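user: At home tonight, take the chain set out below, taking as long as you need, and be ready to discuss the fold:
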Amino acid sequence: MRRIISDIINSDEELHSERTATNGLEAINMLESGQRFDCIILDINMPKMNGIEFLKTMNRKGIKQNVIIVSTIAKEGAKETIEALELGAFDFVTKPDSLAEAKGSEFSNRLISMIYAACNVSITYIVQKAAEEVKNMVGGRKQTPVIKTGGTKNRKASASVPGVKYRKKLVALACSTGGPRALQYVIPFLPKNLDAAVLLVQHMPEGFTASLSKRLNELSRINVKEAADGDILQNGTVYIAKGGSQMRLKRAAAGTYTLSVTVEAARNGLKPCADIMYESLMDMDFDEVICVVMTGMGADGTQGIVQLNKTNKIYVIGQDEETCTVYGMPKAIAESGLVDEVLPLKQIADAITRHVGVR
């Protein structure tokens, strides 16, 4: 596998594989000798020193390096992968199940794209197409707002019907690369009695969102769960879209809403896809939808928010560039001209709470 990964890296004109190590201890010795790299590709299951121990040792010694997890155990032990991300790993790619898959273009492209992002090499080719589509949808505007206090957006006011109790506001959050760690500065700081439900799309494969949900629930006052098909939407609960599935909100009886979680094709290579989640909120009876876009590659979420803005009153919060692991998704929504506030990571939870209130 080391040879295959090295060949993939060396096949790209911008990258080269500098050194290899057979275990974490050997890799730590390299770093302690003063060697530094733009990126480290790390397995979790290794002899002498595993990937978790490697990251802990690196942190303890104050060694700063970009680390991408590539491991079979990532599928079998999602808990270890979430822990690796908490310890500072940039992101992860699941190791292919077969040699043919390992040598295939899908794994190669995923790995190279991740390395480009981690090394801060220009990733224009990754987001250019999505960004162009977004610009076309919003009339070609390209601007980066800092803070807006007014409302010049084309929004449809919602109406309430006497005798029917509506959940007045909804929070819909999207993130990708760097998200699992960033979410620990947002979800645990939301109050237990938040007067809204939170729908959350974090790009992850099947099996990982359950571990992410469990970990965030352990850290939080607010209830956090992996979304399940048929869940009845409740205020004060965060619903994390299931990896490998698409999540939508649907109307139910008596002014209630339920979640639809279905196994279906990816959109733009993503399942879950934030655009699908945002589009499902169109024409829903919320007084306002608070859309939050955080760190991540690409532009997922922007097209969905553009569509949602045509039918609903929305308030958009984007994470600022300085605190993003990758300034892709927040940049795309900022350039759409729909952002109301651009905030550093640690101010997002307070902004959400202030905007939706508590019960």
About this structure: The CA atoms of residues 82 and 215 lie 8 Å apart. The domain at 2-122 is CATH 3.40.50.2300 (Rossmann fold). The first strand starts at residue 40 and ends at 42.
